[in-house]
């Protein structure tokens, strides 16, 4: 099942995606639907199907879920660790250290729904950055029981030049207005039997011309989702819904750094395409 949120009747409601239309779920946002499924210990798919109306409507889709918290993971793919250590002039530095499966993974707080945007909304380029880049990632949505309730696409937009200057500047690199996009839908786990075999692509288009293209398979992830969830939740009570971004394996180098007006698109066939223009914030 593909769940979305749409503008309907002057507000935002959860909806089931049906082809080019939606079946609204009156009285529910995606967050409240997820919270009820989590509290009851019931299937999100079954709950949504039982609450949705019968009629398919055309509507504007927005961010598929407004998370209470977003956490992100770093260096879960080899290219991410290698590129960052390469910038520091070493082949075996701190980024390679956290990439090794025997060590604790890199996890950081990305923000709340305040910093999140949905499909076709603008992602932010920091005004004090010359190298802000997208980080295409598979996102997992969990609840207080730490079970995976759904999958979505995420863009962990990052000011890499700020992090490059000093690793202690990571929060300034990662957390600011419109630094995270999510969408286009939330897909229930039954629709993705093997989340480690998804092919992800990312493109950046400027003035109608492609300036960047990259791809990766989630099969290249060095960490399992259960490990990442466990690390985020350890000594840390998580609210419903929480989104965990599982890391990027597509590296955008400085020559393709985002400029205002660029359009970044992230695609996984089983989930869809998340497209966002970029703007200075």
Helix content range:
10-25%
Question: H/E order of the elements?
Answer: EEEHHEEHHEEEEEEEHHEEEHEEE
Number of strands: 18
Mean pLDDT: 95
Largest sheet: 11 strands, mixed
Based on CA inertia axes, which overall geometry fits?
Answer: globular
Category by helix and strand content: alpha+beta
What amount of the residues lies in strands?
35-45%
Radius of gyration: 18 Å
Descriptive terms for the model:
alpha+beta; 11-stranded mixed beta sheet; 281 residues; 37% strand; 5-stranded mixed beta sheet
Explain what the structure shows.
This protein has 281 residues and is of the alpha+beta class. The protein has 7 helices and 18 strands. Strands 1, 2, 3, 4, 5, 6, 7, 10, 11, 13 and 16 form an 11-stranded mixed sheet that branches. Strands 8-18-17-14-15 form a 5-stranded mixed sheet, with no helix packed on it. 46% of the residues are buried. The mean pLDDT is 95.
In short:
The protein is α+β, with helices and mostly antiparallel strands and 281 residues long.
Detail the topology: elements first, then pairings.
Layout (H helix, E strand, L loop, with lengths): L1 E7 L2 E8 L2 E5 L4 H11 L3 H8 L9 E2 L6 E6 L3 H10 L6 H6 L6 E6 L4 E2 L5 E3 L6 E2 L2 E7 L5 E9 L1 E2 H6 L4 H5 L5 E8 L11 E8 L2 E9 L7 H9 L8 E4 L17 E6 L3 E9 L1
């Amino acid at each position: 099942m593909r769940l979305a949120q749409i503008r309907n009747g002057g507000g935002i409601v959860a909806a089931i995606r049906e082809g080019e239309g939606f079946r609204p779920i009156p009285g529910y946002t995606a967050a409240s639907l997820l919270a009820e499924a989590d509290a009851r210990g019931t299937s999100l798919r079954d709950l949504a199907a039982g609450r949705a109306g019968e009629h398919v409507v055309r509507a504007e889709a927005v961010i598929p879920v407004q998370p209470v918290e977003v956490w992100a993971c770093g260096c879960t793919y080899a290219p991410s660790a290698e590129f960052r250590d390469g910038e520091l002039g070493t082949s075996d530095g701190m980024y390679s250290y956290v990439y090794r499966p025997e060590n604790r993974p890199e996890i950081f707080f990305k923000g709340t729904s305040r910093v999140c945007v949905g499909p076709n909304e603008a992602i932010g380029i920091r005004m004090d950055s010359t190298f802000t880049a997208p980080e295409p990632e598979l996102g997992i949505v969990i609840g207080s029981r730490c079970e995976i309730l759904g999958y979505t696409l995420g863009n962990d937009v990052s000011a890499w030049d700020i992090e490059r200057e000093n690793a202690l500047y990571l929060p300034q690199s990662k957390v600011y207005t419109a630094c995270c996009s999510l969408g286009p839908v939330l897909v229930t786990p039954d629709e993705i039997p093997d989340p480690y075999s998804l092919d992800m692509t990312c493109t950046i288009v400027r003035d109608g011309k492609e300036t960047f293209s990259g791809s990766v398979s989630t099969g290249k992830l060095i960490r399992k989702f259960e490990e990442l969830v466990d690390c985020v939740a350890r000594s840390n009570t998580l609210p419903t819904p929480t989104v965990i971004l599982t890391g990027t394996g597509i590296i955008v180098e400085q020559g393709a750094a985002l400029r205002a007006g660029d359009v970044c698109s992230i695609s996984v066939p089983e989930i869809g395409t998340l497209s966002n223009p970029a703007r200075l914030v």
